[in-house]
Amino acid sequence: MMRLQKYLADAGVASRRKSEELIVAGRVRVNGVVATIGCSVSETDLVELDGQAVYPTGERVVYAFYKPKSVICSSAEGEDRVKATDYFKDVPLRLYTVGRLDYDSEGLILVTNDGEFAERMTHPRYIKEKAYRALCTGEVTDTEVRRLRNGIELDDGFTAPAKVRINSVKNGRTDLTLVIHEGRNRQVRRMLAYFGHDTLRLCRIRIGSITLGDLKAGERRLLTREEIGDALR
Length: 233
Hints:
The protein has 233 residues and is of the alpha+beta class. It is built from six helices and 17 strands. The protein has three domains: 2-53, RNA-binding S4 domain (Structural Genomics Hypothetical 15.5 Kd Protein In mrcA-pckA Intergenic Region, Chain A, Roll); 62-125 and 217-232, Alpha-Beta Plaits (2-Layer Sandwich), CATH 3.30.70.580; 130-207, 2-Layer Sandwich (Alpha-Beta Plaits). The radius of gyration is 20 Å and the shape is elongated. The two termini are 29 Å apart.
């Protein structure tokens, strides 16, 4: 027997936490009965998500994917916009994105069917740095850089100290690299907007030890066992 949320994670449905949300939403049935948190299942039980049978898979994969701009990180049915998982229709596994990257941003997102990996990469107790390359309006001054490095107060509280490097300033625009380890919604954009800078382009280039590398928009690569192990350390 195992907890239902672990069963769903092992089946590549979502991380354990996301699986719990699916259960609470009443979308999961066990032997025809709507499941509840705390439910345990065995291999002989019929588990269904939105009316479709769910089976564990023995193959665990993790992809690094360059999410293009105007693509969403969602697996929701009935969504008209292009999803990151649409780029994986040729992969015969149920895949989902780890974390999120907003619609207007581009760059590295991880796509997997490994619930344990997703849990480790997103849970707050496992701090994973995220590095972004940003192009914004105006000149980001030395004073602003110092304040970003110390943390600033946004509408949802103070940010943790960020690592900031100015790459160039020209034609009234600043190209910079920011490294954070929080996962607030549109955080980098809001940090720059705090000082009056509009973000013109935002690309995530690293999550923990996993880098975007030479990938171009819409491209992917399968991570090796060594890369996955390094990412979880």
